[in-house]
Amino acid sequence: MNYLKKIYCRTFQTGLKIALPFLPYRKPKIVGSVKALPDIIQKKKCSKVLIITDAGIRKLGLTRRLETALTNAGIPFCIYDKTVANPTTDNVSEAMNLYLDSGCDCIIGFGGGSSMDCAKAVGARIAKPKQSLAKMKGILKVHKKLPLLMAVPTTAGTGSETTLAAVITDAQTRYKYAINDFPLIPRYAVLDPKVTLSLPPFITATTGMDALTHAVEAYIGNSTTYGTRKDALLAVKLIFENIDTVYTDGSNVDARRNMLHASFYAGCAFTKSYVGYVHAIAHSLGGEYNVPHGLANAVILPMILEAYGEKIHKKLARLAVAAGLAEKDTPCDEAAGRFIQAIKDMKVRFGIGDRIPEIREEDIPKLSHYADKEANPLYPVPVLMNAAELEPFYYMLMEEPGESSGNEGSEETESRKGEDEDDRTGN
């Protein structure tokens, strides 16, 4: 990256960091069960609910406890279940029309990051009916209060229940962009482990590593605060203590609950402190090839951490201590190496490879341009890179002729594949 662009990026990031204490960030109120939502809806004097989810969630019956609770409380509802992985502008339009035609006045995003992002975008369109989503792209362009928005994550990874962003894919161009504004933060986050119990092992792993990526990128960036550092460290601790348990024993309610809280705290960290090039690259792959976001993050994370080099060793050492991989007096370089190796070992245990075989060489200039455009100047990364400097990572991710990607679980079709989409940060 040339010198002038570096100055521009760092000046922009410094300005945002200075503004952080004055911006209206807030954490959603945590609710422990979907059964508590009818009381909230009634107290807020709402009369009809739109539940936004996907077909896989509906097929598995995960919304039934919520539907029963609403029915028993006499609260009418309707369901939009056509959300796809990497939700599109068409999804948002269809759900918005159902909301308006049915006379709804509150929204529940129920599912992975895709469903929650779709719900946020629908709320934004309801709040600003004369403005397209494309015109809301970027930072602080929504402004208006959304209808009551509640989020029920069915994966412990995206953190979308905590964030001020919705990531949407243009249905025509496949360009993926983020809408970032404070009204998009859900009012309530329902951390109910029972809705995550049927999550298959591979998606449990990739969504958990998605949360880990959020915490790590937020922590190693240059715009941290005391609060975001605390949240990121707690998230890392919880993930390392629980992810293997939920992978091997998905019925462990306590471990599932801990992973939901890890995802929540990681989401709180990156909402304020942002992410980095792992996410920028992953988003370009999700938009172009529909690569599940958590899987992409898991594949890419150790590669980018190694590329940052010594610049992040002190911070990785602190993460290693939180993860139980090192002591406080362990040399920073050694502790950082242990942390990166632990992530690589985690990938091996979970059957996550080192390649994204969907990548086509002719697409790489476009993909790196998308990543550059997303990350710079917004993300306060430890080491700045432009599109040309990001291109080599795509080549590293390409599958060599005759090589197996190693992503054995990525072919799972258990109707929940789309759930590990998408977080968002202005990412």
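[next item in queue]
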Amino acid sequence: MFFSIIIPLYNRPQEIKELLETLTLQTYKQFEVLVIEDGSVHDAETIVNSFTDRLNVRYFKKSNEGQGFTRNYGFERAKGDYFIIFDSDCLIPANYLEIVNNSLATNYLDAYGGPDGAHASFTPTQKAISYSMTSPFTTGGIRGNKKAIGQFHPRSFNMGVSRQVWEKAGGFVITRLGEDIEYSIRIHSLGFKIGLIPDAIVYHKRRTNFLQFYKQLHFFGRARINIYKFFPEQLKLVHFFPAAFTLFILGTIVFNLLNWQIAQLGNFILALIILLIFFHAWWKNKSAKIAFLSIIAAFTQLIAYGLGFMQDFWKRVIFNRS
């Protein structure tokens, strides 16, 4: 199997350097790398070209269109039997491609997704954010795992599709706001076999501070409504959870300010949630500091997603505005 690794890039030269360093260590060598600069002001051409003696890497520049259409640009130029998409803020374990190749050889999938995890080099904040994005007490409990609600939908930070999928399904039809979920659903609808490769883990840095994390998750909440506009049946009750949680917090604050008795119940539930997150994160990361930061990350994630979801639900579903 010959793999084409496709990486869209926008103003993140240092990230691509770290990612390419990890690709030089792959134990499986049959692959190429395509880095597509999506109209960046701070480009990484010099950095990428410095790897040409260690990697089969090609560098492209194009006008800014967003990550979905930038991946399509890579698909059109890829030579591989199988295309793999990474985000530029990922680090790839040395045996990643070997794991994927062996898995596809024994149980072939037309498209796959893999989990994300926290690398030992991550900062405590990055580890807390990684915990929040994979925790059973947040939206992480329904994404990127075998227990996902309904169909499994690979996410574009760690996703592979065969050349046959590309030839029949084409590429991304929206460039952002849930483009990977839309693509996964469309691949499913064409009868292709999609699944999770549990050991195909990448270390996903995501955002480096809570403000950036908030902005990203607010965007994700809006993306869920964008998917609803394409596939109404894909909006499940569980997707309302972050919005309900956000309203619960706001209600508890108001009840406390009004000194209503029901506030005591809200305070108890919030305290229980905080303790669950703290001790679970402590158990997962063996660090009280990361556990404390995980509380902030989890509340940031749920509130940001909930507000983004409610914003576009109100605008695009209730009032049917674009």
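[queue empty]
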